[in-house]
Structures are given as C-alpha cells and as structure tokens.
Write a structure and sequence with these properties.
Blueprint lengths: L4 H14 L6 H12 L6 H10 L6 H13 L3 E5 L5 E5 L7 E5 L5 E4 L2 H13 L10 E4 L13
Parallel strand pairs: 3-5
Antiparallel strand pairs: 1-2, 3-4
Helix pairs in contact: 1-2, 2-4, 3-4
Length: about 150
C-alpha cells in the first residue's frame, strides 16, 4: 500500500485546526509511525516502536494522538474481544473484515463483496447512511503454529 503522508498530514492539520487542538510536530510523528505500522497495534506497541526508533514522544502524547487520529478517521479503532483497543490505518484502505483466533489471537483480514451488499441493504432498509462497518468472526485457526492449540 502506498501512503501519501503529505495528504494524511493535511487531513490531520485541518482536523486539528477545526477542532481547536494544538498542531505539534509530536502529533505528526505519531501519525507517521501509525500509518506506517503494518497490521493492528495497541498504543503501547506503537509507543515502544517509537522509543526504539529514538523518538522522544511521551506515552500520553501517543495515547491522545491516537484518539485524535481515530476521531478524524485516519485510523480505525478496533476491539477484538481482548479488552484492549487496537488501531489500524484507515487511510487509503478498502473496507475489510476480520477473522480472530480465540486461541492465539491471530487476526486475518478479508473482504467479501456480499458483506458490503448486506451492509448497504440493511442500512437502506432501516433508513441509515453507513460510514463504515466492523465485522469480526471469532473462532479457532488451523495454523500449525497456534500458541494454544487444542483438539477442537
């Protein structure tokens, strides 16, 4: 996926200005790291990655900025049943859904046009204008490397 960081910066800058939040270099550093992160991540994981890359951004700034990035829809906020908020880039990505292993926590993304059609039909039927959806299937993966493999 090719990310145009300049466009993402402009979206974020407009949002911060409109909502009267301070525009700081640290917030844009969090944005860059978040959009470049492959897959799903928690705030602490992003913070550690930034620290390991010699960033001086505080943990509080990471947490607060992730909330702002989700509010302006550059990131999607997810909960995969583990009582932990996870994020993923929403910028320039197609809608997709998730399979989550209840044993090892593996997350597999997938897209099915039929699900998109069902979302559109249900929204229309109920007089709702959808701005996205979240569909998660919980189960047990067939991965031979599953950490908590059982025989079910």
């Amino acid at each position: 996926m090719s990310i145009n960081l300049n466009e993402a910066h402009e979206v974020f800058r407009k949002y911060l200005k409109q909502e009267k939040h301070r525009i700081t270099p640290e917030r844009f550093e969090v944005l860059d790291f978040a959009l470049k992160y492959e897959g799903h991540f928690g705030a602490d994981e992003l913070y550690l990655r930034m620290k390991n890359n010699k960033s001086n951004v505080s943990r509080a700034t990471v947490y607060n900025t992730l909330e702002l990035l989700a509010a302006c829809e550059l990131l999607a906020k997810r909960n995969f049943g583990e009582n932990k908020t996870r994020y993923e880039s929403n910028y320039g990505r197609k809608s997709h859904d998730h399979l989550i292993c209840i044993n090892c926590g593996a997350i597999k993304e997938f897209s099915e046009p039929e699900i998109e059609e069902i979302v559109a039909q249900v929204a229309k039927k109920l007089g709702f204008k959808p701005h996205g959806h979240s569909f998660n299937i919980f189960g047990k993966c067939n991965n031979a490397n599953c950490k908590h493999k059982d025989n079910e």
